[in-house]
Amino acid sequence: MSLIHALVARGSTILAEHQAGKRDFSQATQTILSKIPPNNRYLLFVNPTPIPTLIHVINSKLTYVWEQYLFHYVSEGGFTYLVMADDAAGRRMPFAFLTDLQRKFTAAPSSSSSDETPAYGLQGSFGPTISALMHTYNTAPPVDELTRAQTELNQVKDIMVQNVEQILSRGERIELLVDKTDVMAGQATAFRRGARSVRRQMWWRNSKILALSFFVGLIILWIIAAQFCGAGLNHCGSKS
């Protein structure tokens, strides 16, 4: 639980509050409210010199540390909006809660007549609003502008990392394609050399077959002629 106790007060008079835990922090809240000067008032401040000085106390926003808890408050327009939170809650989320609490209180119809309202006079009308707002911030707090900007920055960073990874992956694929192209070029060169060698071998084989065919044809012609003219072809010449 981050937010434990919240209230709206006029000076030290609590108008409405809500406590989420079982521990009573009323004494601590009263002590802190008594330390907050009434804003928009002129206070008498005694200098070391004999001449006192009038100080105009402006709206204030401060955090008090008590045990392991932090008391955050915003004092403005005569009203104090206070919330007690765990130390782990930090400062941004509690002060965002106080901003919403102040906005809801000033928008409520009962705030216009709160100058005459007694202690806890708005508990019935505004206490449930404090309770609901504390429950919202304790369960699903709205994202403040800084967190939203950080989230958007992280998203842009993730997109850039993905783009770089895709570019690097594409570069690796291009390098792999270039390697495959080099291998194919080498294979094509080897194929051309092999084809040239096969063509040369086929030419010699065809030449040998042609020469052998010519030689066999001559032998066949000689055999045919030898049947009529004799082995030395002498008989044909003598008859003529």
Annotate the secondary structure layout:
Elements: E1 3-10, E2 13-19, H1 26-35, E3 41-45, E4 53-57, E5 60-66, E6 69-76, E7 79-86, H2 92-107, H3 123-139, H4 145-229, H5 234-239
Antiparallel strand pairs: 1-2, 1-7, 3-4, 5-6, 6-7
Helix pairs in contact: 2-3
Describe the structure.
InterPro entries: Longin-like_dom_sf (IPR011012), Longin_dom (IPR010908), Synaptobrevin-like (IPR001388), Synaptobrevin-like_transport (IPR051097), V_SNARE_CC (IPR042855). With 240 residues, the protein is an alpha+beta fold. It has a domain at 3-142: Beta-Lactamase (2-Layer Sandwich), CATH 3.30.450.50. The protein has helices spanning 26-35, 92-107, 123-139, 145-229, 234-239; strands at 3-10, 13-19, 41-45, 53-57, 60-66, 69-76, 79-86. The strands form two sheets. A five-stranded antiparallel β-sheet has the order 2-1-7-6-5, with helices on both faces. The chain has a two-stranded antiparallel sheet with strand order 3-4. Helix 2 (92-107) packs antiparallel against helix 3 (123-139). The model is unreliable at 40-50 and 52-57 (pLDDT under 50).
